[in-house]
Design a protein that fits this description.
Largest sheet: 9 strands, mixed
Oligomer: single chain
Strand content: 15-25%
Helix content: 25-40%
Length: 450
């Protein structure tokens, strides 16, 4: 049960409100943040602090104007300092939630820096912690993606001074918060989008969290302890991984790790996975479960060479006894092409496609020069040609026009070619190996999978 006395006892125990710091409150007018605002307003005398409320009008819902008027009136009547920020944006078709989150935290950072010394308080609660933990587990299961939400973290923002981000409602469930709001008649607004089951977070909230709560009456305390202990475990694991890098790393530059493949393969696979996540941190990307599997399968395979394209900028490559993890040096997948394929090598791309070249096996038969076999993955170039079924040749440009391929798709096509001869374009073209190929060529097999 959430009470004012219990809440402030929790704040005292975790030392969440230093005496000389302003509390900057992120408020959305929803029940969670309005309850947090009410709790801070009714702090015991010894815990009363300077307060600054930050509200953001995302201009995404029809009632946002009404909510903005509400919070302005609420704070004015109670003499609470308020900062209102409006997100001005054009038409949004994708990535709305992430773009809104970025604007929101940019605003929080700016207000905290202007109010320094200050602490940012947000109204995330225990159900939010369960949702975040579940979604991260489903998305990748990566160790370093957890523990998710914590009571107190240190937020670093570029060159600005670091500050504490506090979530003092994490011990309490959504039902605890609603009961408090009913007891104390806390005014708030309900966001209708919270009922939209097309959103993954809402499905988790409505289907998984209730079942999780039914398992045990004290799951809220377990979640809180789990996140705290896992954060401590991550720190210990990072210390150990730092030691492992000394064994496997041959050379480390800001944008590339060069590692000993033999030493790496001597580690248990679980440690390999953690080490891969550790060295990938400078890339700023969280590896997906599929990417981790692709990298480890490649490293532990019998192949002499190969690569996994992780992002437009980052890749993992193997070359005999060496592993290279870092930024690309050549263009790949429309951004970092071309890529040359050698026999018994495989190339993965971020979208899941893979290309593999072998001397025999399934796939597209390609004739390459004996002197210097060169199958290249690249985008189209002037002079590219395809071979028609009647044996005649046609420019690739005319072929794509005849097939009515949109210009935007033409610019993104990735094809396999030998010189100017195009041999394969996924879902568009496959050149047939002629019985009358030149005697100075050999046959290799190209396999493409998606």
């Amino acid at each position: 049960m959430l009470t004012r006395a219990d809440f402030w006892q929790f704040v005292r125990r975790f030392k969440l409100a230093p005496t000389n710091e302003t509390i900057v409150l992120g408020v959305s007018t929803g029940v969670d943040s309005m309850v947090l605002l009410d709790l801070v307003r009714h702090a015991p005398v010894e815990w009363q602090r300077a307060m600054q409320v930050v509200y953001i009008d995302h201009q995404l819902r029809s009632q946002s104007r009404e909510e903005t008027d509400f919070i302005q009136t609420y704070c004015h009547q109670r003499n609470i300092p308020l900062t209102v920020a409006t997100w001005h944006h054009g038409q949004l078709t994708s990535g709305v939630e992430e773009a809104a989150r970025i604007f929101r935290y940019q605003t929080f950072d700016a207000v905290v820096q202007s109010a320094r010394p200050a602490t940012l308080w947000l109204a995330h609660h225990n159900d939010d912690a369960v949702e975040t933990m579940t979604m991260k587990l489903a998305r990748s299961g990566a160790f370093f993606e957890q523990p998710g939400l914590q009571v107190q973290t240190i937020r670093h923002q570029n060159t600005q001074a670091a500050f504490s981000l506090v979530r003092p409602l994490l011990p309490y469930t959504k039902s605890d918060i609603r009961e408090y709001a009913n007891r104390h008649h806390v005014p708030h607004y309900e966001d209708a989008t919270n009922q939209d089951e097309r959103l993954l977070r809402n499905r988790v909230r409505q289907q998984i969290v209730p079942a999780f709560r039914d398992m045990n009456a004290v799951t809220a305390a377990h979640v809180l302890r789990y996140t705290e202990e896992l954060a401590a475990a991550q720190s210990l694991v990072e210390d150990r991984l730092s030691q492992l890098t000394e064994q496997v790393v041959i050379r480390h530059q800001p944008d590339q790790w060069t590692m000993d493949r033999t030493q790496w393969r001597a580690l248990p696979r679980g440690q390999q996975s953690l080490l891969l996540q550790y060295v990938s941190q400078p890339s700023g990307q969280t590896l997906t479960g599929r990417q981790i599997t692709q990298c480890l399968d490649l490293i532990n395979s019998s192949r002499a060479s190969g690569e996994v394209q992780l992002t437009q900028q980052w890749q993992l490559r193997i070359s005999y006894h060496t592993i290279l993890f870092g930024q690309n040096q050549t263009k790949v997948w429309g951004k970092k092409l071309p890529v040359g394929l050698s026999c018994n090598s495989i190339v993965f791309f971020p979208t899941g496609e893979s290309w593999q070249l072998r001397k025999m096996g399934p796939g597209v038969a390609i004739a390459v020069p004996r002197s210097a076999p060169a199958v290249v993955l690249r985008q189209r170039q002037p002079g590219d040609e395809i071979q028609l079924t009647n044996g005649q040749h046609q420019s690739l440009r005319r072929f794509l026009i005849n097939r009515k391929v949109p210009q935007t798709e033409r610019d993104q096509l990735v094809l396999a070619a030998v010189g100017q001869a195009v041999w394969y374009i996924p879902n568009l073209y496959t050149r047939q190996l002629s019985e009358h190929e030149q005697p100075d060529t050999i046959k290799v097999m190209l396999q493409y999978t998606k």
